[in-house]
Structure formats: C-alpha cells, structure tokens
Amino acid sequence: MLALGQTVFWDEPLKAMLPLIGEQVGLSVDLVAGIHDTDYFAKLPGGVASQSQFSALPKNDGATKNFWSAAGEFSALFGSEATVPREAFSKAGVPIEKLSQHEPAFIDHITEAYGWRGIAARDPRAQVTSELSLEPIFPVLQQTFHWALNETVKTIGTESVRDSAIAAGDSIHTLMCDTRESCMGQTLATFYECLLSDFHKLVAGKNVASEITRTSTLLSFSERTCNQKRFQFVDLFTNPSTRTVAIDAYNHAVEGSDTYSLDKFGTGAIPFDLVIPGVGRGTIRLAPHALVIMTPEPIFVDLKTEIRSITDLAKVVEARFGPCALVGKAITLISMLASEFIFAFHETASSYVHRTRAMHNHLIKNGIDVRVNPILRVSLSAWDSLSVVDSSLDLPGHLQQGFGAQQVSCGDFAEKWRQVVSEQERILERLHEARSPHAAICALTCIAGDEFRDLAAEYEKLHESFVPLREQQMELDKKREQMRARLRAIKREWQETEIKMGQMYRSGNMHERNVCMETVSRLRAERRDLKAALVRLGAEKASLSADPVYESTRTRRKQIEQIANELRMKVVRNAYLTAYGLRRTDCRPSAWWFPVLSPNGAWFKTLMETAKMRIEPLTGELE
Predict the structure, then answer these.
(1) In a shared domain, residues 301 and 366
(2) Are residues 29 and 8 in the same domain?
(3) Does position 407 have pLDDT exceeding 80, yes or no?
(4) What is d(CA 42, CA 71) in angstroms, rounded to the nearest whole number?
C-alpha cells in the first residue's frame, strides 16, 4: 500500500494503522509511506504582503481566499481549513458588506477558518518543495506548530491531561530540533521524510512502514528506471499509436472542471510534468523535432528524431538534464502509481479520483487496456473515538453555541457532536428561509434564547405599534389606487372621445362634435382635481410617517435590527464552523493530536478499531 502526503503535520501519519489492522486479520501489509515533495510550495497570495521570507497565514474568504499550503499547514484541535464563505452569510440574509463598511480586515476576520495556519513563501518565484531549504523555514515551522499546540492545550479542561499534553508537545518540539540536526540533505522534504517514521511511532507506538520515501525518489526518471510499471502509463501519451486516444481520454475526463485541457498548455502537451533539479517543474510538450519543458523559463531541446516511447523520452531527458522526476498531473499521477501500488486515501481526499476513473474508462472503451489497482478508502471517526479520553474540553467559542456549554467531557462531546452538527445545519437553513428582518428576529429568538429574547419582545411591540399607521396608510393607498384607476379610465375615455370628435367633424355633425368637446372639458377638469387630490393624499401619508412618535419608534427598531444582524452574523459563523469544521476534522484529523491528547494511545487505538474501509475501483462504474 502507498500513502503519500505533503506534510507530516496533518492526517497522513494516521495511515500507520494499516499494517496493524492487517496483523489483526492475518494479512501482511507492506506500507510504503512517502512525502509528496514534487509540488510547488505555497506563495503569498496577491493581497498579502510580508517582510519575512516565510509567513504563517490564516485562511479566509478575503485576502487569503485562494491560499493553498499543503506542505506547510497546521491545525489546532478542532481546527480545519473550512472558511466561512461570504455566500453563507448572504444566504442567511446577513448584509455582510454593509456590516463590514467595506473594510477588508472585517471580511478577513469574520470569514476566517478556525484553528488553521498555512506557511507561504514571499519569493514570487515558484519553488518545488523537494528543493526548499529547511534552514530559513524551520523557525516558522516551529513557531506555527507551537501556536497550534498552544491553541490545542487551551481546549483541555483537565489539568493532568493538560500537563501531559504540554509534555507530549515538548517531545515533538525536541524531535523536530533533533531531526533538524541529524537529517541529511537539509531540505524541507528530507526533514519530513526523516520525521515520518517518528510520527508513525508517535501515533502507533512503533515503526510500521516497510519503506519511507518521497515522490522525487519514487518517480525518479532515467533510462534505468523508465521501464518500471509506474512509467508505463506515460507511454500511452508518448507512443504515436495511442497518443491521440490518450489525450482525448484526458481532455474528456477534465471537461467541465477547473483543470485545464491539454491544449491550454500548448501544442504537443501531455499531462505529465518534469521536475528538473535546480530549475523547477514544467509540463512536458512533445513536438516532432523538439522537447519543450514549460518550466518558469521554458526549455527547448532540439531532437534528431521524434520521441515515440517512454524509453526515447528517458534518453533525451537524462542526456540533457540528468536524473529528474517525472510526475503526473493530479489525475494521471494516480494512474501512474496505481499500476504498482494500492493507494490508501482517507475519505474526502483526492476529490478528482472520479476523473481519473473517467479517463481510464474512456481508454478502455477505445480499445486500450488499463490495468490499475483499486484505491483503499479509509473512513475515520475521530470524534466518536474521543469518548475514551478521560478529560473535559474547554470548547472554542463557535462550538459553545452548538453544545450550549463552555465545557463538556470528551465522552459527552463524542456522544453529542453529530446531533450538534445537524442542529447547526438546521440553523443555517432556518436563517436562509427567514429573509425579512422581522422573520430573522423571530428565528433568532429561538436560536439565541435568553441572549436575545428581551430585545425580540421589544421589537415585536415596536412592530405592533405600527399597526394603526399601516392601517391608515393602507386606507390612503386604497383611495389613491381608486383615483389612479379613475385616471386610467379618464385617459381611455378621453382618447375615445377625441377619436369620435374627429369623426363628427369630418361628417359635419357639429352638434355631436360640441357634445364631445364638452366631455373632453369635463374629463380635463376631473383629471386636474384627481391629480391634486393624489398630491394631498401623498402629503397626508408622508405626514403620518413623519410623526415624531413613529420616527422614534422607527429609529429604535433599526437599532434592534442592527443588533440582530450582528448576532445573525455571529450565529452563522459559529454554525458554519461547527457543521463543516467538525465533519472535516472527523474524517481527516491531524495525527499529532492523538499523542498530545491521549499519550497512552487509547484514542488512536479506538480510532483504529472503529475505522471502516472500502475498495474504490479505478475502472468501471461505482455501484
């Protein structure tokens, strides 16, 4: 089995359970665990400035909306990358832009994900993680882990458990420092590679992987390695006899997604990148007389003969660049490695797998044999398993809304969290349906309870005090509508009379013509009187609204609506963070939480005992 992750500080080390579960059922599971180090390291988003070479940033729906930091992310207990999108506020009727007064910092704060930080590089040049030097980033790694640990410790309500958590965190700090000194290579990727087996041991109690590697090693590409199974899928795109079908299959699979079709990369592009040491990563393009690598500065290699196989490509690449790594894009990387390994993915991970399957099915449909192993999906239940931890929890603010308490036991949390998530989802639905201020205030009375009940009662009285005014205004509106209806009738009668008057003139019937003229004169006078009456009624209606009593009432009502909007915004934020954050972290918790909160291993053991697994094929249709 193959387990790949870009960092050791998220969920990947939990896959150490796979060989242990294998032992329990009489199977020998060889786990190849690796660091996916052939992607680019995150850069600062366009709206964020920093004087530091590396910075740890929160995730929000403002300045860091599109920020992604897989190789440098940290989450405190209950923390995740789940931001509260502006759309969630809009759906719930919260006038977020009005409340923010167009201040970007306000939007950043109110949409920020809870308990998450990701490290980004200031350098605008993209740098592959495998070549990122450890020395300048290490202090930020250490500080960010320290932040995540401290936030986690704050949530532990039992003193003895809190003390053991601090001690466990100190051990991880020491491990990081020791590994920094002893690990050869001194890149971030080698640092993670050296830490991975130790993190397996932290959560599982012993070393379990049969091999620790990195994708830059696993996908090292040369004449010596090119005949490995993992590179045979690439051959479908280099061989002229299958290239067209393979490209069509890829483009068919990405259709309708945010992933570019191959024509967007240029003529001859195939869905694989070459990672060239010291240069960078770039899409491979094949032309009859040239090989093009779309690194930040594209590289052109003149060819004497066309590349017609994976072996041809390896010869040219090694001769020109020396050993490189050949990496499939997201969809094809799975195809490459699934030919040799069974990928182990947590539920919700690699959401593009269905597109890989669609590509394989398209190839099979067109007569190309595709032989790949299925995926093993691992379903974790972190919060159900928390029941075995003998401690209380000091809940973060957003969770207090759902649980109705500042502190709960781990057992109560495990028992109630699913119900709490469902209730918070219903709150979001209820606020979505309560569009008017009055309806929202009624909904908040049920949601917020005592916190808002007195204000809601006052608002209801204010609302009722407008009943006489509304009745008077409705009576005036009724009269005005009757007048407008008569004006429309006058207009029609006037037009008809003038037409008749013209006919009488042409026929010489002057008597009837004079009658028509008198009718027009009468209609003109009636219209003038009606218009004057409409103005008087409008003024009367305006004077009713301008009554100082009503003005004062209206001002107070707006004040309560403002308070309600602020409360509604808080409720939406808390509900969203709870509902979406807990679901995410339940299936993909950070591995280091387990030895910190449960040093005796009980939490991890229960997680392992309750884990569910399913086979997900990479060809055919899912049942």
Answers:
(1) no
(2) yes
(3) yes
(4) 8
